[in-house]
Amino acid sequence: MSAIRLLVLGAVRQHGRAHGYQVRNDLEYWGAHEWSNAKPGSIYHALKQMAKQGLLHAHEIAPSTAGGPPRTEYEITAEGTEEFRSLLRESLVAYDQKMDIQSAAIGFIVDLARDEAVELLKERIRRIEEWRAAVTEHYVPEDGPEQLGHIGEIMNLWVHRADSDAAWTRGLIERIEGGAYTFAGEGEPFVGVLTEGEENPYATGERHPEDARNQV
């Protein structure tokens, strides 16, 4: 699974309809270019590919009076919404994924109902514990990593990360069950996107050939 699909679909969905540069700007505002593969080229490529796949609908917008090429705005389709929710759910429960996928999923967790989010996070813990049980059949953390030579530090790292992930997830469940955040169906959600014309303090300033076609 690639985090870029979830990030781009989620960003477009939050706006309802967004041009490519707007999606790029949002992802840079979230810092996704630092912790994922959400680079300008990857974002524009993902938008075009998912439009071809029917997950997004591409609207060709006439150029402004100042001239320039026609601009493209994207809108998520019913199939795209289904794909977004599927990716989101799987990203929340899957432990054998990279941190960028988990981070992207947490960024959109409030798009789910509160009860469902909790159940998915509990399933994540179950999978972590299942993975840990399989690993510790051959490696006993209490005996220390030295039992396997310096290679034992690899196992030590994996188990430590699994334990940390499980502890963090339990804390998140506790906060959610305690009423933190606004989930789907509960009212006006927190919107972590920039308003039109608002300056992005975290923009990279990196130029890309597709910028001109995707800016408003």
What does this structure look like?
With 216 residues, the chain is mainly alpha-helical. 54% of the residues lie in helices and 8% in strands. The protein is built from nine helices and four strands. It has helices spanning 3-15, 20-29, 32-35, 40-52, 78-93, 99-107, 114-135, 152-177, 211-214, and strands at residues 18-19, 56-61, 71-76, 147-150. A three-stranded antiparallel beta sheet has the order 1-3-2. Helix 5 (78-93) packs across helix 6 (99-107). It is elongated, with a radius of gyration of 20 Å. The model has no long low-confidence stretch (mean pLDDT 84).
Structure, briefly:
With 216 residues, this protein is mainly alpha-helical. It is 54% helix and 8% strand.
Per-chain topology:
Elements: H1 3-15, E1 18-19, H2 20-29, H3 32-35, H4 40-52, E2 56-61, E3 71-76, H5 78-93, H6 99-107, H7 114-135, E4 147-150, H8 152-177, H9 211-214
Report the major sheet. 3 strands, antiparallel
Classify the secondary structure makeup into a structural class.
mainly alpha
How are strands sequenced across the largest beta sheet?
1-3-2
Low-confidence stretches: none
Helix-residue proportion: 40-55%
Shape: elongated
Q: Taking Cα atoms only, what radius of gyration do you get, to the nearest Å? A: 20 Å
Order of helices and strands: HEHHHEEHHHEHH
Mean pLDDT: 84
Q: How much strand content do the residues show?
A: 5-15%
- Classify the oligomer: single chain
Q: What's the total helix number?
A: 9
Number of strands: 4
Rounded to the nearest angstrom, the distance between the terminal CA atoms is 31 Å
